[in-house]
């Protein structure tokens, strides 16, 4: 490591992930003098084709419903920004946090959670589908950019963070060579090669990325919902924390136009949630007094968390968004189309894998087999919304001549 990278490690907390102490990559590679291993992980994610495709994957609104609504790409960038800033303030490794944040949604199929629900239903006889595990599968199997290995060959810490940023995946230590059947397929497929210690918590950096995800989508989905006219500003006053901020904004800027009031509300919400997270997390860290990242992993509880009042407020906000936005009839109409598109494509490709592009057809087995179903799921999961619509039109609109 260069002197610059060593000096950077001196600024980190004892329990932060340090590049010099990384468990390394599954396929050993020489280090570079100008970037740490976690910086290289981040850069590899950014340059991946899966990351680029997030541009046209649904957050809530499908791509053609407006140019200013969030997509999975802009959401991931916003999660990354919050993660990086908070990691820096807490003396955690911001490069690792950023790598996890940028990669956390790579496994989402087209059409958001509706697409995942339908794809999982299609795969119920073939070991199911899980978007968190699919992100790991993409980064270790499906991305093909290097001559020496499949995947991006990311560090153990980045893969660990993706696998369990929401907490331990199993209750007790397992034989990673024989993963239990209840684990998502992608985890069971990868674990025999690389034990990710699924029974422990992830690093503080990965935990922070998970909460940054909550902060970003709660505040920014609210922003999108207001700008789409699905609900009004005054309706949010049912939620005490949000009501307080609305009153603050309206009192401070009584003559400001509606779009400025919304922006002021959203930025204050983000600041309030980040500040609460940092206060509660620092309190937990002082109480635990960790000396290493392994103390974080074995703490028995998350060290990065919201205070109880903020946690309850975020639950209220999520409940409001669920009722007034995620189940709004305009969103439901698009979701209904999305269900049919994903289900139709899966049934056709699984029965007729010869209709898959050549490189995917070559990976498939017999029609209807588990091998073919997994290839089909991987292919569909990688689609953007518009590509899925286009493929469906090509295959099911019998009047179309050009394929």
What does this structure look like?
The chain has 18 helices and no strands. 58% of the residues lie in helices and 0% in strands. With 403 residues, the chain is mostly helical. Helix 5 (94-103) packs across helix 8 and helix 5 packs across helix 10.
Layout: helices, strands, pairs:
Layout: H1 3-10, H2 37-46, H3 49-53, H4 72-89, H5 94-103, H6 112-122, H7 131-142, H8 156-164, H9 185-190, H10 204-227, H11 240-252, H12 258-288, H13 293-297, H14 308-326, H15 329-351, H16 358-361, H17 370-381, H18 385-396
Helix pairs in contact: 2-5, 4-5, 4-10, 5-8, 5-10, 6-15, 10-12, 10-14, 11-12, 15-17, 15-18
What keyword list fits this structure?
403 residues, 58% helix, Deoxyguanosinetriphosphate triphosphohydrolase-like protein, mainly alpha, 0% strand, globular, HD/PDEase_dom, Hypothetical protein af1432
Which blocks of ≥5 consecutive residues have pLDDT under 50? none
Question: DSSP helix count?
Answer: 18
Strand content is under 5%
Q: What is the name of the CATH superfamily of the largest domain?
A: Hypothetical protein af1432
Overall geometry comes to: globular
How many strand segments?
0
The CATH topology annotation of the largest domain reads as Hypothetical protein af1432
What is the helix content? 55-70%
Provide the residue-averaged pLDDT: 92
Question: What's the main sheet like?
Answer: none
Radius of gyration, in angstroms, nearest whole number: 22 Å
CATH first level of the largest domain: Mainly Alpha
Along the chain, the helix and strand elements come as: HHHHHHHHHHHHHHHHHH
Q: CATH architecture of the largest domain, please?
A: Orthogonal Bundle
Helix-and-strand structural type: mainly alpha
């Amino acid at each position: 490591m260069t002197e610059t990278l060593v000096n950077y490690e001196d600024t980190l907390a004892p329990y932060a992930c340090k590049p010099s102490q990384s468990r390394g990559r599954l396929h050993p590679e020489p280090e570079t003098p100008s970037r740490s291993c976690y910086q290289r992980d981040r850069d590899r994610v950014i340059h991946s084709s899966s990351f680029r495709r997030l541009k046209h994957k649904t957050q809530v609104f499908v791509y053609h419903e407006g140019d200013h609504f969030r997509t999975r790409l802009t959401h991931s960038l916003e999660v990354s920004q919050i993660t990086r800033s908070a990691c820096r303030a807490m003396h955690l490794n911001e490069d690792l946090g950023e790598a996890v944040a940028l990669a956390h949604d790579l496994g989402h199929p087209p059409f958001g959670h509706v697409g995942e629900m339908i794809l999982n239903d299609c795969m119920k006889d073939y070991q199911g589908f899980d978007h968190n595990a699919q992100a790991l599968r993409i980064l270790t199997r499906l991305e093909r950019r290097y001559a020496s290995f499949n995947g991006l060959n990311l560090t153990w810490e980045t893969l660990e963070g993706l696998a369990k940023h929401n907490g331990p995946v199993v209750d007790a230590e397992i034989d990673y060579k024989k993963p239990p059947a209840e684990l998502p397929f992608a985890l069971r497929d990868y674990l025999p090669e690389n034990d990710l210690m699924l029974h422990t918590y992830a690093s503080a950096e990965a935990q922070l990325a998970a909460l940054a995800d909550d902060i970003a989508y709660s505040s920014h989905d609210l922003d999108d919902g207001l700008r789409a006219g699905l609900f009004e500003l005054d309706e949010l006053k049912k939620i005490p924390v949000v009501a307080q901020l609305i009153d603050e904004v309206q009192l401070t800027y009584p003559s400001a136009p509606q779009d400025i009031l919304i922006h002021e509300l959203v930025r204050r919400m983000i600041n309030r949630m980040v500040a609460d997270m940092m206060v509660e997390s620092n309190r937990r860290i002082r109480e635990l007094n960790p000396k290493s990242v392994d103390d974080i992993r074995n703490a028995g509880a998350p060290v990065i968390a919201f205070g109880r009042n903020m946690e309850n407020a975020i639950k209220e906000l999520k409940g409001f968004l669920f009722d007034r936005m995620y189940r709004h009839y305009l969103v439901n109409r698009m979701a209904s189309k999305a269900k049919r598109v994903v289900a139709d494509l899966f049934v056709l490709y699984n029965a007729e894998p010869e209709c898959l592009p050549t490189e995917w057809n070559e990976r498939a087995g017999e029609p209807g087999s588990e091998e073919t179903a997994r290839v089909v799921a991987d292919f569909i999961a990688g689609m953007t919304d518009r590509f899925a619509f286009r493929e469906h039109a090509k295959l099911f609109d019998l009047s179309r001549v050009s394929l």
